[in-house]
Design goal:
The protein is α+β, with helices and mostly antiparallel strands. It contains one helix and three strands, in the order βββα. It has a three-stranded antiparallel β-sheet with strand order 1-2-3, with helices on one face.
């Protein structure tokens, strides 16, 4: 996989984006929310990264007491 692409659609007022830091094998991907939340997506180079993104974004919404949109 190359890069994760955000949908740009807010989820309960929270919009996610992806930030890449570094280059080559040392590159890291972070999912960020406009509220300031940020977490590394360790599997961003693999197809199953979509599952990791979904799980982490759902957990973020639950921690805020919000139910995520499916």
């Amino acid at each position: 996989m190359g890069r994760l692409i955000p949908t740009g659609v807010p989820n309960r007022g929270h919009q996610m984006d992806f930030v890449y830091e570094g280059e080559g094998e040392a590159q890291k991907c972070f999912m960020t929310c406009e509220c300031g939340w940020r977490i590394e997506i360790e599997s961003f180079r693999h197809p199953w990264s979509l599952i990791e993104v979904k799980v982490r974004s759902r957990r973020h919404m639950q921690e805020l007491g919000l139910e995520p949109n499916d």
